[in-house]
Amino acid sequence: MRRDLILIASMAALALAACGGSAGTTAPTPVTGPTAAISQAPESVPASGAPESQAPPSAEPSEGSEAAEVSIVDFEFSPATIEVAAGQEITWTNEGQAPHTATFTDGPDSGSLATGDDFTHAFEEPGTYDYICSFHPQMTGTVEVTE
């Protein structure tokens, strides 16, 4: 009986850790491998469970600004779409409680960002760059780089 309880508790701890819960000190393992399907990821659904009725916020490139900013909080990137000029830096900052990543289909990977950590990258070529959080693939974002 006791062995069964230990087994059940261990399985529950593993399930919580895989979902970003706080059962122990085990950090989630990032998803590896091709991420070609990122641009086909489902649209985000807010915590209320209702679909979003309006377009996600977008940030326009700002003249004279050295870095644009994306906050990671409440299991979403804010803004979800950001527009920057080629060569302009973007800094992602994890302001949430769970670890997150900014993992691009064809490009950089921030690695695991704990609460308060940040990651900065500049795209030199104009184009559209899609990314996800490899721990929470329902979290999606887009960087639009202009000339």
Short summary:
It is built from 1 helix and 9 strands; from the N terminus they run H-E-E-E-E-E-E-E-E-E. With 147 residues, it is mainly β.
General description of the model:
With 147 residues, this protein is mainly β. It has a domain of 91 residues: Sandwich (Immunoglobulin-like), CATH 2.60.40. The protein contains one helix and nine strands; from the N terminus they run αβββββββββ. Strands 1-4-9-8-6 form a five-stranded mixed β-sheet, with no helix packed on it. A four-stranded mixed β-sheet has the order 3-2-5-7, with no helix packed on it.
Order of helices and strands: HEEEEEEEEE
Strand order of the largest sheet: 1-4-9-8-6
Q: Give a count of the beta strands, DSSP E runs of length 2 or more.
A: 9
CATH architecture of one domain: Sandwich
The CATH C-level class name of one domain: Mainly Beta
Terminus-to-terminus distance: 66 Å
Number of helices: 1
Radius of gyration: 17 Å
List low-confidence stretches: 1-64
Please, what is the CATH homologous superfamily of one domain? Cupredoxins -  blue copper proteins
Based on secondary structure, the structural category is mainly beta
What summary fits the major beta sheet? 5 strands, mixed
